[in-house]
Design a protein that fits this description.
Length: about 110
């Protein structure tokens, strides 16, 4: 799972630069999300020991619950797993995030 942010008018050195867009992304393990879901729901991690069972458990939660846990993990991690890419346009930044498939436009 990944969390993305687009910062307008910032370059890859986090300096203000008009006309640039900085795409930040953090990779979060789906197993970390399951652990957070278990923690929030007061379940023991021993309850779901194998990765296969964790995949099944992940499928049992709503997208909203998964999104909330992903954002909580992101908030707790700070910037430790972030990487970034500088872009010359908002369109280029969106293409980096959705691979050029137009998924972001569908969500807006």
């Amino acid at each position: 799972m990944q969390v993305y942010r687009i910062l307008e008018d910032y370059n890859e050195e986090y300096e203000k630069e008009s006309g640039t867009y900085l795409v930040e992304r953090e990779k979060i393990s789906k197993y970390d999300v399951v652990d957070k879901l278990l923690e929030i729901n007061n379940c023991s991690e021993d309850y779901v020991a194998s990765r296969e069972l964790r995949d099944i458990m992940l499928d049992s939660f709503s997208e909203k619950d998964i999104l909330i846990c992903t954002l909580l993990i992101d908030d707790n991690n700070g910037l430790e797993n972030w990487d970034n890419i500088e872009c010359d346009s908002l369109e280029e930044a969106k293409n980096i995030i959705d691979g050029g498939y137009g998924l972001i436009e569908e969500l807006l």
